[in-house]
Amino acid sequence: MTLDAPTPQPRDGESVSAVHGRLRAAILHGELVPGASVSQAHLEQRYGVGRTPLREALRLLQREGLVLAAPNRQMQVAPLSAGDFEEISVARLALETVAVRITVPSLTSSDVARLKGLLAQMAHFQALNDLPSWNAPHRAFHHLLVAGAGRRVSAEIGELADHAERYRLRFHGLGNSGDGQAEHQLILAAAEAGDANLSAVRLAEHYVRNVMLVFSSLNPNHDLGRVRTALRTLAPDAEPALNRDENSHL
Fold first, then answer.
1. Is 59 helix (H, G, I), strand (E, B) or coil?
2. Of 13, 210, 222, 225, which has the fewest Cβ atoms less than 10 A away?
3. 222 CB-near residues (< 8 Å, 6+ apart)
4. What is the pLDDT of residues 190-246, one digit of tens each?
5. What is the bridge-based pairing of β-strands 67-70 and 37-39?
6. Closest CA relative to residue 184, chosen from 142, 155, 213, 246
7. Considering 26, 53, 77, which residue would you say is the last residue of a domain?
8. Which whole-number Å values give the CA distances from 79 to 32, 202, 242, in the listed order?
């Protein structure tokens, strides 16, 4: 597989976008195990897809960093690593703390009402421990908080969230749902008050907690210097949360 060749039209029935969506979901949810090597022939048979759309879907997944090329028509699901997760976390902090500061001043009363409704849905599905159903309002909640930064920024944030999801599902799950729900309520309260800076701080504190929960299983001894620098630069008032969570989880 190469990244630069033009994408041909699929000839084998199912569209490239459909095959890409199915394989992407399988990778994000762990159905295709991180680090596993699989032949294209096996994927064709397992998912009942044609060779041409599969090849082009794998090309797209390689561009996203979810698939690594291997010899002899093999592909490797991108492995999970502490360094990769820290990079994802730094990128999310950088983009989202800026995006929420842009978005909060422009939130309308309808936006706030929608955020409250999404938060109620999240609480309902958390009580049922229903992660698949919880994901939709959770993603919508965070998307609305950064949408004011524009389509391109929102799309990049969404892709980073997908990459982070691989780690959260494997090492964290829903975690302590009470803590998570309380943190979302604090973010919403700051946004409803129109306090852009406090919204960014609350959001950063929320991500710090999730980062520490993942690292407590992924690699408790990993040096989080890049996360610390990102916090110090982007939301310095949130940095004490990292010190607190390092002591409590590591």
1. helix
2. 225
3. 82, 83, 86, 215
4. 999 999 999 999 999 999 999 999 999 999 999 999 999 999 999 999 988 887 655
5. unpaired
6. 142
7. 77
8. 11, 31, 26
Instruction: Report the interhelical angle of 51-64 vs 16-28 (nearest 10°).
Output: 50
Q: Can you say how many angstroms the Cα of residue 237 is from the centroid of all Cα atoms in its chain?
A: 23
Q: Return the closest-CA partner of residue 237 out of 162, 186, 185, 173.
A: 186
Q: In 10 A of CB 239, how many CB atoms?
A: 21
With bands split at pLDDT 50, 70 and 90, how would you rate the model's confidence at 77?
A: very high
Is 104 part of a structural domain of the chain?
yes
Number of structural domains in the chain: 2
Answering whether pTM is above 0.85, one says no
- Does residue 106 sit within a domain? yes
Residues 6+ apart with CB under 8 A from 92: 157, 160, 161, 164, 207
Structure tokens at 171: 């090492």
- For residue 130, being part of any structural domain is answered with yes
Q: Which of 182, 200, 193, 75 is nearest to 146 (CA)?
A: 200
In CATH, what number is assigned to the domain containing residue 59? 1.10.10.10
